[in-house]
Amino acid sequence: MPLITAAEARRRFSDARVARLATVRADGRPHLVPIVFAVEGDVIHSIADPKPKRGLDLLRHRNLAAHPAASLLVDVYDESWEQLWWARADGIGRVVAEGAERETALRLLRAKYPQYAAWDVPFGAATLIEVRRWSGWELAER
Q1: What distance, in Å, lies between the first and last C-alpha atoms of the chain?
Q2: DSSP type of residue 3
Q3: Rounded Cα distance, 129 and 72, in Å
Q4: Pick from 70, 82, 54: nearest CA to 19
Q5: 101 Cβ neighbours under 8 A, 6+ residues apart
Q6: Vertex 22: Cα angle to 19 and 27 (nearest 5)
Q7: CA-CA distance, 91 to 93, in Å (whole number)?
Q8: How far apart are CA 38 and CA 112, in angstroms?
Q9: Across the strands, what pairs with 19?
């Protein structure tokens, strides 16, 4: 069962539409949420968007402030197991409430997701994950 290269993991990750973001709560427990994202180089960008939730003060932001380590996972599952694969990004996260980096995140996300481009509503802070390690796996060589 072959591992995929870091470059291939980054490519597959970048092409995916949704990832699962894992952060660590202040009490040490894991916190896992699905996110939409955009990749530029070795930085993953996400943003607090106005979809229904408890507000723009997100637990993931508080978690990253206390424990900046983060992992993100994208995967494909298929009943034909020859199609299975996953790609993971491990890195250091931070939250950016304003400025050029936040605007870059919003620009990248609007380019990837038409829903974001259509919304003319306030967005919250951006989450930036500086990836230190790309990794992945697939069941069958392609």
Answers
A1: 12
A2: B
A3: 9
A4: 70
A5: 126, 128
A6: 160
A7: 7
A8: 7
A9: 35
Chain-centre distance of CA 2, in angstroms? 24
Strands (E), the chain: 19-24, 30-35, 38-40, 43-47, 69-76, 85-96, 126-138
Distance CA 71, CA 73 (A): 7
Name the pTM for this structure.
0.92
What are 41-71's pLDDT values in tens digits? 999 999 988 765 555 578 999 999 999 999 9
Give me the phi and psi of 82, to 5 degrees please. Answer: -65, -15
User: Residue with structure tokens 């995967």?
Assistant: 75
Question: Nearest-5° angle of CA 88, CA 139, CA 2?
Answer: 70
Is the pLDDT score of 142 beyond 80? Answer: no
Measured CA to CA, the distance from residue 76 to residue 88 in angstroms comes to 12
> Residue for token digits 């508080």?
62
